Amino acid sequence: MTTRTGSTASVRLGAVGRYVLLIVAACISLAPLLWMMASAFKPGGDIIARPFSFDAGRLTLHNFRAMLETIPIGTGFRNTAIVVVIKGALTMIFCPMAGFAFAKYTFPGKRLLFGTVLTTLMLPTLVLLIPLLLEMSQLGWVSTFQALILPSAVDAFGVFWMRQVIMAIPDELLDAARVDGAGDLRIFASIVLPVIRPGLAALGVLSFINIYNDFVWPVVAVNDEQHQTLQVMLSALAQNIRSGQLGADWTSVWGQLLAASTVAAVPVLAVFIVLQRHLIKGVMAGSLKG
Amino acid sequence: MVTVTEAMAARREARTAGRRRVKAAPYLFVAPFVLVFAAFSAYPIFFALQLSFTNWHGAGALRVVGFANYRYLLASPDFWQSMATSGVLWLLVVPAQVLLALTIAVALRKARFRGLFSAALIAPFVTPLVAMAQVWIILFDKDFGAVNHGLTSLGLPAVGWLTTSVWAKVTVALLVLWRTTGYAVILLLAGLSTIPSDVYEAARIDGAGAWHQFWSITVPLVTRTLSFVVVIGTLTVFQLFAEPYVVTGGGPFNGTRTAGLYLYKHITNSDLGLGAANSMLLVLMVLALSVASIRLLRSREDS
Description:
heterodimer, A: mainly alpha, MetI-like fold, 14 helices, 0% strand, B: MetI-like fold, 77% helix
């Protein structure tokens, strides 16, 4: 009897420990984000003097106004939007197309091609940085939207993932359509795409986040301000601050940085909050390749 | 005998039917992928390999220098320092991440509000890295940052998070851990969900405690996912670029100049042949580390 109550108590203790751990972990995850957003609305001096206190009466938009004068963030948003829309669309059309071919057809060369997909999955992206940059300059594409969009428009991970998703479609469904006289393209557009809509949605969310946040390639491929994406613009602001170009008035400079970071984070966080179920499903699906 | 010939005939029929059905369609479907891959992955890689044997600076004719770039790098203290910096960051990030992510995933598995917790944990992974890197600069500033503000108000000494080369590594590692651990948790949660619950029940009937269950059931059964997490972590750390680029610029005293940042230096110096050779060495390194960590984890699975 005593051992029984003892174990129930320890189970209860375990459950409490579990939630304490999860709540602490969730707080650590969210704290820097919330601090960033809240501090962006504080007067510069308060960010430094009282980093953990928030006084609703002292909130201000001053940091946002100052930031808008320092960097052309609207241009950054426009450029990122162009890249996200076009590259995202290409990903969501071409990845399922290739995935369909790998999942439901046998054709000479399939093994070799699929092998390249798997190899590309493991290739560090940094290795491509220099040769790809040189290729861009040979093509005259440095600081263009083509350079930002095309090189990774059909990524291997998307192809692999869509193949997994399409493999789950029963062959009978496709055969029935074929008997009814539907061509390959018809089958793809009117059967495969509608059936895989959940997987496609997850691919869309993941692509949106990845493309929106992409930094390494855009910072290398673009030298002029007209084509800078939002992320590149943000890092330029940070570098100007470090090199002292914006002066040493920390109170003003930090407020601007926090305002710019908040503005850059809000769209992607909004998409995330609305579509997070798809994203988590997508990440889980991605783990199954391991 | 009859059945064998029948089966062969049926197979032949199926094959010709398949061939008739195939035609051009699958090739058209994979064409966009193949074109993009050939133009922007295959070609550049071969170009980089060729370039790594030249001393090209971005203009003029290619001059072949044999293995000179590789020899230079392997004898260069800067190269090894960058590798060592990445190695230290690996030590600071990967073991801690595996431990944290596994603990949180196990706690999350049977918890209520799983969706809500998952969302909170993965939010850092979604936020733009550059934005968060800037928040890190501000939070970890030695004189005015919120972290030191908190430490001193607790009576602890302020730390030079960004001003000493040792602590700067820790600060960068904390950013990487903060951003990517939630992602690892979700991956592990997917791995854990494949373990049938009757395995645990059987263990409980045998009198295995929670700790014993964790080590003898959970860990071995998620080895695959764990090795995936380790490989992703390794790839992330050895390609680390944006975090130190924004937070520290590689400083102080090159203390956070990672392998990725050192590679970038060749681009800004227009030492493209050298840079290409450096990329090749980096790829070998990353592949070797990934294979080694998979081997290590898989061997535990067998035993």
